[in-house]
Design goal:
Largest sheet: none
Radius of gyration: 16 Å
Shape: flat
Number of strands: 0
Order of helices and strands: HHHHH
Strand content: under 5%
Length: 99
Amino acid sequence: MLIADTAASAVFLHEWRHLSEPAHTEFQHLRQQYEAEFRALIAQGVQAGELYTPDPAFAALTLLASLNWLPNWYRPEGTLTPDQIAQRLTDQLLDGLAY
């Protein structure tokens, strides 16, 4: 989704800071709610024994930061397809650098 329209994604991810009220406060509330749901999802994975992290909040921020940077570097003419990028991100973010 982030690479379907990188310009729109970049605006959505970064320009919200310039919204006027009450849209700014509403956006911040929705963002906090989204992040909380993301943390809860990670915590559920930990509780089910499917994921490991000592800090679901830190893990959520790390994952979201990695994904949100995508529109800054992705180029449609690059060597990786969107599906390949999705698979590599999934592998990297869920499996880390473990050997």
